[in-house]
Every structure is written in structure tokens, then in C-alpha cells.
């Protein structure tokens, strides 16, 4: 366990007032997209000029945690924050039973409250979303690193929590209240409310202090609650009723009692529990995994009574002795119980099989346990070839965070938050703040490798739980499996990169590339863009591999443009099948030898059109107008590569066959569309009007494709030099440096990293204009280039920044109807999130 970075409040006012603001605790949660939601306390002035505390819910990327975006303000206390499995929805639970459901928009700052539940002042103890029925996992047996994805990852059967007519999973969420209610809210597929239900757990309503829930593979909701002296469990089943004619339809909820037990001090099951051991109080309940209702974690506080001597029994009341603080893991197992034992006490008595909770191990603490946390799932529980321990984290009242191995309940490591500096304060203030610091909320990342903690001073602490030295040679295999799992499941790989040593990145990218290239064409086409983005994110962390990172980024952008061009259908109505798709014919033609032998683009087009209907090549003019920036980017990039080839024959981008072939296809398709619509003409700064520059670029790209992987000859270099006399080229800022935590990692900054909320970064947000010029005689690059829409943004124009690189995009194109705009509306090509530039929020006190 190692502290990686901390983000603290900037304390410029009275720290005593700020400490009191966070005395009621807080909440934080991390989504599968590495987005953190957390609470911050501020103050504002009411109509009587009194300062009242206000709780704000903020979201931020884990890579730029000092740039929070406020999505909600409330004078009520925020109790829980919960993300959906894909990170697109967020539940915010306020005191007095009010729940807000937020849905993410295009930008990281765009969260809208799509639904609000007001459950009549109920004190909510636990809340979560329904299970959608999708459960991909890593094979638990022996793992072959070079095996295909279909062999490594399987889809385990898991029934959705609520199934609609037609076997479709319904969206919604459920909550458990302190008064013994199961609260259910079901949403339609369009996001509107379908129904709300309140069901009593048990025969009568009861009072509970803590609760937790798990989603079983059978589709049931398993609930565990603590009522003094007993942990009571239930199983809930949700079903959709048949809709009668003219009725809205409804659901039915069936509650069944499950196995309960008493967590006494010295027993293993509730059958042998005794009250003489002392007072037992459960402070925290949590299922070890979200999808496993058979394993339960219980945090206990035991007050053991001290027996007085016989002479003092009549005059001295019983006194309390030592306090024991324990974390126990209980497992639901089958138990063979004898049948009719009092009537027939024989050794071979017939028995019955029942399920009972057994204590599998415990961990003791000298301080009260504040909260428990685990990862949602144990992804690598398999053999010794690739096994990572499943870690339970416990926060204690003395500001310690302890990592516990679930298998043996032994402590692996610990970290004390009192050693964290409190910003840029004076020494006496820092010492006082540190003594008052306490953990109020813990949450794991989806991989379980890292942990985020929110303390009572409003600071965030990102902690890596597993280091390579703790695992040994198995670390590389485990990390490869997790990276590939992130690739196929859609989860973000940021927390995997921060746990990866720089010395292993190059080896990991080679292993990932070798395995990826062994797959079939449908799989590689489906995951190609995402794989290139992952490769770019890894190579960008190494200073010696920046050129390879540039190549991967350009390949990802060109591949995305290719796939977009290939999905466009002609305006003619007689082409409806893939066999008649024009893109398939173009792709086969450009990969043939006949296409490479013809250098004239017009002759190549005539040869292609002679075997097909020209009407099948016509595309909607409105779509072509939206595709014009992408065609312009392909032409400028091809011109830039050819000019660099003339000045440096060893230029790497000109030696990549995939990039050259992609540019040939894009320019060829654009020229085909140009015959029907003149809007797709790329604009170039020509020195002479008598030369068809478009045709010259295609000719030289074809010449380069003919000789690769060989070296360019002098004739090709002379033709590229001749092209320089015919047209001017624009310098392209190909290298987009990282920012935030990734930038500090690339610069080998010492850990732990220290940040302050909205206080700038160590690197500049936009450094693309400060890059050195590499192309002689080219036009200088303009600042603020939108790398995806290929448009230069005015300085005063509203814009979005990427949270992980220095890319900037215009804020207007995320709402357009273009397919390309929707593809990159939420994420940059580096996998970062688009967000508004950070602004100074209300001060923390």
C-alpha cells in the first residue's frame, strides 16, 4: 500500500470553521470510467446574513482530480454516491429519503437530474442499481497469455434483477431504509419512471442501524441488516406483471427470509451464541463481492464485561473491560444437521442439509472501525500463474487504512493519513489539522488495484494497494489479463497504468500487440480503435517512445475515419446488403496489385467504376459537408508525410504501411465522391494552379506503398521535393503531451503527488503551440487545434479541455447530428473525458 497522490482544500480562512463543516462526514465513489464523485462542503450567506453550510456533489477525472465540476448543491447532507456499472448514471442520496438520479451527458461536467425520488423522510442505509445481466469474467483455470480473448474471458450466466416482457433487462435501483423497508424504483427504457414500490422486510417494520445488499446470479436481491444481537437476512425477487388492456402495468416484489445469525465473540454459528461474552455491536456490513451473496464482512465492536470478585459483587456494579474491534468474514455453507436427534440419539441418525453462516477468519484492530470497502468483483481468483489477492480495506478511527487479504484475513499493509501534509499551511496549523483528520469514505477502483479515500478535512487520497514487488513474476501476466479485460469490457485502464512500472511498459505493449494480431478479422476490426488508444496511452508515458505514441494516435484517428467512410450507404435504395456495399469493393480493389500498378487516380477510379453502378457511389450531400474536415485532415497529413520524406528519408510515419494505405483509401474515396459533389475538395495553398495536387499526393502515396517495407529511392525523393515547389504545407502538431497525473508520471515526479483543488497544474493545459518545428518551410501551426474535428478554435470561443492530454475541442460540435461528432463527443482519442476549463468554485469555508 502506497499513497500515490493527495488533493486537499486550499485553506486561506479559519481552519476551525472548515473542520466543523466536515464533521458530518462525506461520500465518494469511483466509476468504471475512472470518474470520481465526491462531496465538498462550502458555505453561503442566507437572507439573514448568516453563513450556512452547503454540501456540493462534484465529479472529476482521477487523472485531474484538482479540477472538480459541481453537479449539485444541497443544504441537506449527502449520505451515499453510487455509480451504475457503465458509469453513465449516478445516484445521490440525501438525508430524509430524497434520491436524485443523474445521467451523464457529452462532457464530464454535463450531468442532468433525470429523476427524483422522495421517500417520506426514510433514513436510507444502502442503495444500488439493478443488475443488467451482463457478467464477463476471466477464466479461473490455468491462463495462457497468448490465448485468444474468447478463451480468456467468458460470460457467466447472471439473470437481470428485473426482466421486462421480451426478456429485456429493466433499469432501476433499490434501497434499504432504517425502518425496515425495501424501496424499489423501476425506470422505462426511455428513462422515465415506471413504478415505485415500498415493501416491508419481514412481517413487521423494524429498526436497523446498518445494511448491505448483493445481486445474486439468480436475479434475487439479497439484503443483510443489523438489528441488535442479530444479523437478519432476506431475499427479494422482482417480477413484471402482465399488462392488462388499458392498464399501465406493474411489478410484484416477493420477500423471503434467509439465513440469519448472531455474531457473538467466541462462536462460529448462532446456535452456540451466549450473551455472557459481552455487548456486541455491528458497525459496518458489506458483502465481499457485489454478485456473491454467500460471503459477508462484519465489523464488530465488542465490550467484554469484567467479573468482579465475590466480596464486591453485592456492592459494585459490573464494569466494562477491554474493547475489541474486529472484522470477520462469514461464509454461507452447507451444514448437515441430525434429524430427530432427541428421540433417536444414534450415530447413524438421518440428517438434513441446511445452509448456515460460518466465521472463516477475523482481523483485530486497536481502534474503532469506521468503514469497510472492497472491489466490486474479484477478477483474477485463478491459478498461481495469474492470481491477485482480493483485498479488503478497513478505515479506523485513528486515521489508519489497512489492507487485509480476504483468504486468510491477515493484514498486508497499512497507511496512516496523519502523515499527509495539509496543503501549503503553516506548521502549527498543519499539525492541528493532521490530528483531526479521519477517514469518512472508502471506494475501490473497478480493478481492485487502487483505493480512493475521502477524509474529514475534505481531502482525497489515491492509494495503490498492490505493487509489483508484492506479486513477483506473476505481476506481468496479471496486468496483461487486466488490460485485455479492460479492452474487451469497456472499462477504463487509467488505474492500471498508474500501477505499472515504466520499465515494463514496452514489454507489455509488445505482448498485447502480439496477442491482438492473432485474432480473427471481425474481432480486430471491432477492437482496433480501442486497442490503438490503449497503446497510445501506454507509450506516451515513456519519453523514448513518443514517436511510437504519435504513430498509434494517428493510426487510431485514421482507422476511425476509415470505419466511418465504410459505413456510409449510398442514396440509392437498391443497395441494402453488405454484398453490394461500395466500401467492400473499394477496399478489395485498393488492396489488389492492379491498384498499386496504376498511379493515376482518375484511371483507377475509371477502372473501379467500370465494374459497378455509379449511382451506388453517391452519398447524401449533407453527410459529405460534415465529412469535409476529415478529408482535409487526410490530405494535410499525407502532404506533411511526403514533405517530411523529402527532408528526412527515415521519417517513421512514411515507413508505416498501415498509415500509408489508410491515407490512400481516404483520398481515393473522397475523389470518388468529388465526382458527384464538389464540396469534398480539400483546400490547399497552391503555388501554381496548373497541377492537380490531389492526384500528385495519391500518386506519391501509391509509390510509397509499392516499395514498403523497402527504402525510398532517389526518384521518389526527387518527386517529393518537386511537390514542395507546387504547394505549401501546414505544420501539424502531431505530438499531444499528457497532462495531470499522467504528465507528472511521465516526468518521473516523486510520489506522493500533492495537488490543491482548482489551483492549476505543473504542466500547461495547452502546449501544442510550443512544440519545436520539424518541417522546414512549412506554414506555422495555429494554436488551439481541434484534433478530431480538425478545426482551429478562436481564443474567445467556448471550448472543452481533455482531462488527460492537452487536446482542446470546440464546445459546439458535440450536439450536432454528425456520426463522427457523436463518436468522440464524450471521450478524446486518448481516452480522456471532455470537460469545461476549470474555474474557481466557492471557497471551502
Characteristic key phrases:
single chain, 845 residues, alpha+beta, 5-stranded mixed β-sheet, 4-stranded antiparallel β-sheet, elongated, disordered C terminus
Describe the structure.
This protein is of the alpha+beta class and 845 residues long. Among the domains are: 123-260, no CATH class; 577-618 and 620-729, no CATH class; 741-835, no CATH class. Helices cover 24% and strands 30% of the residues. Strand 38 and strand 39 form a beta hairpin. Helix 13 crosses helix 15 (693-707) and helix 13 packs across helix 16 (714-724). The protein is elongated and about 95 Å long. Mean pLDDT is 83; it is low at 265-276, 308-320, 422-434, 760-770 and 841-845. It comes from Scylla paramamosain. Belongs to the Mediator complex subunit 16 family. Pfam families: Med16_bridge, Med16_N. Keywords: Activator, Nucleus, Repeat, Transcription, Transcription regulation, WD repeat.
